[in-house]
Amino acid sequence: MSAQLAAGTYRCRDVSKSVATAVRAGVTWIDTAPNYRSGSAEAALRQVLDTCPQVQVSTKVGFVPDSDRRAAQDAGALRHGLDRGHCLARPYISWQLTRSRARLGRVPDLVFVHNPEHGRTDRADLSRTLTESFEELERAADTGEIGGYGVATWAGLSSGMFTVLELTELASTVGGPRHHFRAVQFPVSLIHLAVVADALDGHGPLAEAREAGLDVFASASLGGGELLGAMTEGLVRVVDSEASPAQAALLVPLSAPGVSHVLLSASTTAHWADARGATARRSLSPGRLRKVVDVLGT
């Protein structure tokens, strides 16, 4: 199993407890964002990150937490009334990166441009927004303020607003051959099987990311928890008859070609032990993945 589990913090009720439990279970990557848990998620990670220097962390820029809006406006990083809850202008990105470093207590290993498609329907406008974002993130990477950057999207790839190849080409245009574009994050799961089917045929986001040497962070691996209730005995058998329901669900993104990290929010030791059991199992073969796609469709 080449892909690894990473701790997501989007749906965590108690970020500190959940992430501490994940780290004790052997997880070495944490993903967060300034707007998670009403703006408190980054600061909640500080103690774990201080005591576990081996753990890497990624955060994001884009969404504007209500708790940060006034401070960003007072600093001149955000124009009053014009952000609509999401901003990727260079002044705001720079301001947010400084705030994230202070809250995390360290330089983030990755910073994702968070849902750049949010509120946009015009590809030309989106291209300008991404260019401005990449320019600021390249500057931050050059000065050591971040380790690298990527794009985290929910629907940008599936809707055709951009492709991984276009993102890579933009990074090369902005940052040259030694650019700092390192990763993409998007849904890969039993609910989001189209990207897996495409990868098995050698095209689509996963194939393009692998060709470009990018890390892929699979989000929504359990569909926000909904998948666990949908894992019938028959479906588990299609995936792996000896796996638990959670393991069977996780085996799909863990085995998908090109995936390097599978994000999971889990709060208890038992849940993480069960999930870690999936990484100890044999990866699903391309033939088995095709059978899953055939049974469930895309």
General description of the model:
The chain has helices at residues 15-24, 41-44, 46-51, 66-74, 90-104, 123-142, 164-175, 194-200, 205-212, 226-230, 233-240, 245-255, 269-280, 286-296, and strands at 4-8, 29-31, 56-61, 110-114, 149-152, 181-187, 215-219, 261-264. By secondary structure, it is of the alpha/beta class. The protein starts with a strand and ends with a helix. Helix 11 (233-240) crosses helix 12. The protein is built from 14 helices and 8 strands. The protein has an 8-stranded parallel barrel, surrounded by 7 helices.
Topology:
Layout: E1 4-8, H1 15-24, E2 29-31, H2 41-44, H3 46-51, E3 56-61, H4 66-74, H5 90-104, E4 110-114, H6 123-142, E5 149-152, H7 164-175, E6 181-187, H8 194-200, H9 205-212, E7 215-219, H10 226-230, H11 233-240, H12 245-255, E8 261-264, H13 269-280, H14 286-296
Parallel strand pairs: 1-2, 1-8, 2-3, 3-4, 4-5, 5-6, 6-7, 7-8
Low-confidence stretches: none
Tell me, what's the shape? Answer: globular
- Count helical runs: 14
> Major beta sheet, specifics?
8 strands, parallel, barrel
Order of helices and strands: EHEHHEHHEHEHEHHEHHHEHH
The mean pLDDT is 95
The largest beta-sheet arranges its strands as 1-2-3-4-5-6-7-8
Strand composition percent = 5-15%
Number of strands: 8
Distance between the termini: 24 Å
Rg for CA atoms: 19 Å
* Structural category: alpha/beta
Fraction of helical residues: 40-55%
Summarize the structure.
With 298 residues, the chain is α/β, with parallel strands linked by helices.
